[in-house]
UniProtKB/TrEMBL annotation:
A GO MF label: metal ion binding
Protein name: Calcineurin-like phosphoesterase
Keyword Signal annotated: yes
Signal peptide: none
Organism of this sequence: Micromonospora krabiensis
Residues forming coiled coils: none
Length: 656
């Protein structure tokens, strides 16, 4: 089980040619053992609360559990295909566990990190020691490149209805349905408030009971009901975590906290403890200011390693129900939103308000585009536009009803005034929903879009603890059954004034395919095809470029371009391998197509690594418009490593 992988593809950095009007066209391509510690033979420790967590990247998993005894323990891992009659093979790998005495209950906590996982492989694992192993559980890795889906869950808050068993049943049913309907999802992300009382282990046992939490990696977020003790930290050991005092609310010796980050495929996730929000009066770093500094540092250091930036924290700042008017959430709107816009955050996932909402594109704490319509199915945020999503209850233990906006706060960017396009809801929310039924959010991470769906995982019927205990329910099971969609939106990223192009490159003998987005975004060359066992090739076309010239001088003009190297993390290959054949798609403005340029693979030349002409017009040309295009031809050696590569094609316009 020895596998190492360089980080997923880097974010395209746009560059502008000096002394010219330049647009940017990004270009991307993708290629298609632990130390053994002996334990006493007499070890009879009881092992419980096993949960599979995310690691620092897709090649890792962190497993956490409780033990009744302070003994040397470990994880044992092997490919599932190598396990015969329940017996782990002699080649199984072990990873030592570390931990300490529990401070919130009796016993001890343990965790260990599984590393060097291979893609597209089923694994089985167990925890404990020789002669005293837990039951074995299984998970499956998928391709470490490309599209994937993950699920986001709001506030199970087991115990908040007053009936742990009913809350557990609703939580288990949501997980059962969601994973059965989406068997290939790759991660479970929580919005916090796993339990009602931070150190109530009966509630934690109920939360951790579903086996899906041992089959899919869990990215746990801390909520205000989790923070009041150490159980949350002892049940969820998170990667890259800073547990400095400024990331805690209260005494870090008795409460859980910390901010952490990880990268899963092409998404940089940053998860913060929003329970700590008060900025110290003496000006020292703490509360929201500390979180902003943390997020800024992580994005500056690691943002280029991913295509998307997603923040997760508990306290929703744009939600529709009881907590929307809380003073601390109003303060977070002031403290967070401009920083998140400046840092290029794409989406924020939140809980806390036990209702569903999807914001408009928010920039610097204000609606970015006043014309964006409520419930739009396609959203195109500009630079700094952020989508905020609040998840409803995943267990049915508690729901909050949607509140009416405050007309007196109309026009106040941090207030809760009405939406001019729909006065019945808050100005910042495109969609609000509360039916008193369980739901979850599915996020599809695509090459050039995020697809967000809020999906019903229940109806008015049991298990639905809050409704069973007398709360009304407005869902109609015939028209709104389990699995029906409450809301769906496709979020398209901003690509500056140019275009991004992407191609996926497989390992040898992979499939070929390409697509081009219909709007001015990513041009995806798909998966390159191996040719004659010597090189890869992918073809496509740039998005058309319209040239408009209405000058009376009838001066000449030209459009040229050059491409950077293709990069995926620290993997790279030369932009010289890209060639093109320019063409005039719509005549006008005297436009003439530039000369074809061969891929450097064919002629050992420089391809588009140096500036090449796309189109031009001579002095005295007619005024008007022309549309220019170019067919792309990418050929490169098959020694290039598998990955999802992007480069930047800078388009420069020159005129007299």
């Amino acid at each position: 089980m020895e596998f190492s992988k360089t980080r997923a593809s880097g974010l395209v950095r746009r560059r502008v040619a000096a002394g010219a009007t330049a647009g940017v066209l990004g270009l991307a391509t993708a290629m298609g053992s632990g130390f053994w510690a002996a334990a006493s033979a007499a070890d009879t420790a009881t092992l419980s609360g096993i949960v599979l967590g995310v690691g620092a990247n897709e090649t890792q998993r962190i497993v956490t559990w409780y033990s009744s005894a302070d003994t040397a323990q470990k994880i044992q891992v092997a490919p599932t295909a190598e396990i015969v009659n329940g017996e782990f093979p002699a080649t199984a790998v072990t990873f030592d566990a570390v931990g300490a005495a529990n401070t919130s209950t009796t016993g001890f906590n343990r965790h260990a990190t599984i590393t060097n996982l291979k893609e597209n492989t089923g694994y089985s694992y167990r925890v404990g020691s020789e002669g005293n192993w837990s039951p074995a559980y299984s998970f499956k890795t998928q391709d470490f490149e490309g599209d994937y889906d993950f699920l986001f869950f709001g506030d199970p808050q087991i115990g908040s209805s007053g009936d742990i068993a009913k809350d557990q049943a609703g939580w288990a049913e949501t997980l059962r349905y969601a994973t059965a309907a989406n068997p290939n999802i790759e991660m479970l992300v929580s919005g916090g408030d796993h339990v009602e009382s931070a150190n109530n282990e009966a509630q934690w046992d109920a939360f951790l009971a579903p086996d899906q939490l041992r089959q899919y990696p869990v990215a746990a977020t801390i909520g205000n009901h989790d923070v009041g003790g150490k159980s949350w930290e002892q049940h969820h050991f998170t990667p890259n975590t800073d547990r400095s005092a400024q990331y805690y609310a209260g005494d870090q010796n008795t409460r859980s906290g910390g901010d952490f980050w990880y990268i899963y495929k092409d998404v940089l996730f940053v998860d913060i403890n929003s329970n700590s929000y008060v900025n110290p009066t003496d000006g020292s770093l703490g509360g929201d200011a500390a979180h902003v500094a943390y997020v800024t540092d992580v994005i500056k250091k690691h943002g280029s390693e991913a295509k998307w930036k997603v923040l997760v924290y508990h306290h929703s700042i744009y939600s529709p129900a009881s907590h929307a008017t809380d003073g601390d959430n109003v303060q977070r709107r002031k403290d967070f939103t401009t920083a998140f816009s400046d840092l290029g955050v794409d989406m924020v996932l939140q809980g806390h308000d036990h209702s569903y909402s999807r914001s408009y594109s928010i920039k610097n704490g204000e609606k970015e585009n006043p014309a964006e319509q409520p419930g739009a199915a396609e959203v195109f945020p500009g630079p700094g536009g952020v989508i905020y999503v609040t998840a409803n209850s995943a267990s049915g233990s508690k729901y909050y009803d949607i509140k009416k906006p405050n007309a007196a706060e109309a026009g106040k960017p941090h207030g809760n005034g009405p939406d001019p396009l729909d006065p019945n809801k808050y100005w910042y929310n495109s969609v609000q929903n509360q039916e008193h039924v369980r739901s979850y959010v599915k996020v599809g991470v695509k090459a050039d879009k995020l697809v967000v769906e809020n999906i019903r995982s229940g109806t008015c019927a049991a298990p639905n603890a809050a409704v069973e205990k007398g709360l009304s329910c407005v869902n109609t099971p015939d028209g709104q059954p389990v699995g029906s969609i409450v809301d769906k939106v496709t979020v398209h990223p901003y690509h500056g004034n140019g275009q991004d192009i992407q191609v996926n490159v497989p390992t040898a003998a992979g499939e070929f395919g390409w697509t081009i987005d219909g709007y001015n975004g990513l041009v995806n060359l798909g998966t390159a095809q191996e040719r004659n066992g010597w090189f890869f090739e992918a073809t496509g076309s740039i998005n058309p470029i319209v040239v408009s010239d209405s000058r009376f001088s009838l001066a000449p003009w030209s459009i040229s371009a050059n491409v950077s190297d293709f990069k995926d993390g620290d993997k790279t290959f030369s932009g010289a391998y890209l060639g093109w054949s320019p063409k005039v798609l719509a005549t006008g403005a005297g436009a003439q197509a530039g000369a074809a340029v061969q891929s450097g693979y064919d002629d050992q030349g420089q391809g588009l690594a140096v500036s090449r002409g796309l189109g031009a017009a001579d002095q005295g040309h007619a005024r008007g418009k022309a549309t220019l295009g170019a067919d792309l031809d990418l050929k490169f050696p098959n020694e290039v490593a598998k990955g999802s590569y992007r480069a930047t094609l800078t388009i420069t316009a020159l005129s007299s």
